[in-house]
Amino acid sequence: MTLNSLESDAMRPDVAIVGAGLAGRLLAWRLARDGLRVALFERGDPHGRAAAAWVAAAMLAPLAEAAVAEPLLVALGEASLGRWPRWLAELPAPVYFQRNGTLVVWHAADQADATLFQRRVMANAPASMRDGRIATLDGAGLARVEPALGGRFQQGWLLDGEGQLDNRQLLAALDLALAAHGVPIHAGVAVDADNWPDAGLTIDCRGLGARPSLPGLRGIRGEVVRVAAPGIGLQRPVRLLHPRYPIYIAPKQQDRYVIGATEIESDDDSPVSVRSALELLSAAFSVHPGFGEARILELNSQCRPTLADQRPAIVFDAAAYAPGGAGAGTGRERAPRFAVNGLYRHGFMIAPEVVNEAATLARVLLDHPRDACAGFAAWHAATPWPELASGVRFPAASGDADRHPDAARRSGASAPAAVDHSSPTDRFPCRS
Ligand SMILES: Cc1cc2nc3c(=O)[nH]c(=O)nc-3n(C[C@H](O)[C@H](O)[C@H](O)COP(=O)(O)OP(=O)(O)OC[C@H]3O[C@@H](n4cnc5c(N)ncnc54)[C@H](O)[C@@H]3O)c2cc1C
Question: Where in the numbering of this chain does the FAD dependent oxidoreductase domain appear (predicted)?
Answer without folding.
Answer: 14-352
